[in-house]
From TrEMBL:
Keywords: NADP, Oxidoreductase. GO terms for cellular component: cytosol. The keyword NADP applies. InterPro entries: ADH-like_C (IPR013149), ADH-like_N (IPR013154), ER (IPR020843), GroES-like_sf (IPR011032), NAD(P)-bd_dom_sf (IPR036291), QOR-like (IPR047618), Quin_OxRdtase/zeta-crystal_CS (IPR002364). Residues 11-323 form the Enoyl reductase (ER) domain. PROSITE patterns: QOR_ZETA_CRYSTAL (PS01162). This is Quinone oxidoreductase. It comes from the Bacteria. SUPFAM superfamilies: GroES-like, NAD(P)-binding Rossmann-fold domains. One of its GO terms (molecular function) is quinone reductase (NADPH) activity. The keyword Cell membrane does not apply.
Length: 325
């Protein structure tokens, strides 16, 4: 019998149960995958705790990205065959040994990219792609601030933004994480635990500030992030690892320089097959050429998903983490 992680009630890591789970057979337009690596992301914690309500209620199998091998293709799937290596990002269901999934959500993994790299890249790498290339199109000469620079998305973004010609400033919470970010494209890294990041950004830029701030931290970095922006700069809030940003008066954006603010999500940027393929092609291109490297620093057996969540929430992880079925 195939195994999966199931959540029957919201709560701490202990609610992640390793159980028997029959994936079923693929129907029309679907394939049966055998997962080889599953990505771990903070959004998994949000679903586990109940901060994000699952679309189909409980119980649920968490996880939004994985790589694997096609074992069986359903009717009308003529572009995939058993043995093909594929990867995906989806809402839920990746914490499993096997999974039935719609084929149009899959992308082929090219030669030169491993299954672990692909599993660690689909959510984080595609997030970096849309943030840097579409939410705000980073261009040569820009100065950007990226919070949580040593996190999974942060390490992708540092390398990619440097390639795009930007001056890249990051924040991190320990000397080791500061050094890790510096090794992955960041020109300047601020240890926010002993330095006020707003003051540091002003010093680094000579008062010029940033065209854009990318913020996945939320409560702890707001409204300081706004004070790091140039006139008509853009505040991009794409996560809330420290808690939700409290309600605020939109007038603050006018007071601080007619700022733009947006709360994007990946799935709005890869909603169509065409968008997904274009985004994945851009990501795998920079990975295949060695411009952006997927940094997999932690591996846990799927059965130990609870320990992986504990380490993630305690900020003991850096780069990407994968679960191995």
């Amino acid at each position: 019998m195939s195994k999966a992680i199931r959540i029957h009630a919201n709560g701490g890591p202990d609610v992640l149960k390793y159980e028997d789970a029959d994936p079923g057979r693929p129907g029309p337009g679907q394939v049966l995958l055998r997962h080889t690596a599953v990505g771990l992301n903070f959004i998994d914690v949000y679903y586990r705790t109940g901060l994000y309500p699952p679309p189909n209620g409980l119980p649920l199998t968490p996880g939004g990205e994985a790589a694997g091998v096609v074992e069986e293709a359903g009717e009308d799937v003529d572009w995939l065959k058993p043995g093909d290596r594929v990867a995906y990002v989806s809402q839920l269901g990746a914490y499993a040994e096997h999974r039935v999934i719609d084929a149009d959500r899959l992308v082929r993994i090219p030669d030169g990219v491993s299954d672990e790299q692909a599993a660690a890249s689909m959510l984080k790498g595609l997030t970096a792609e849309y943030l840097l290339r579409r939410t705000y199109a980073v261009k040569p000469g820009d100065t950007i601030l990226f919070h949580a620079a040593a996190g999974g998305v942060g390490l992708f973004a540092g390398q990619w933004a440097r390639h795009l010609g930007a001056t890249v400033i990051g924040t991190a919470g320990s000397p080791d994480k500061v050094e890790l970010a510096r090794q992955h494209g960041y020109d300047h890294v601020i240890n926010y635990r002993d330095t006020d990041f707003v003051t540091a950004v002003k010093e680094i830029t000579g008062g010029g500030l940033c065209e854009v701030v990318y913020d996945s931290v939320g409560k702890d970095t707001f409204p300081g992030s706004l004070d790091c922006l140039k006139r008509r700069g853009m505040f991009v809030s794409f996560g809330q690892s420290s808690g939700q940003i409290p309600p605020f008066n939109m007038g603050i954006l006018a007071q601080k320089g007619s700022l733009y603010a947006t709360r994007p999500s990946l799935f709005a940027y890869i909603a169509t097959r065409e968008e997904l393929e274009a985004a994945a092609a851009a990501l795998f291109d920079v990975m295949s050429r060695g411009i952006v490297k997927a940094v997999v620093n932690q591996r846990y057996p799927l059965a130990e998903a609870a320990r992986a969540h504990e380490d993630l929430e305690a900020r003991r992880t850096t780069g990407a983490t994968v679960l191995i079925p």
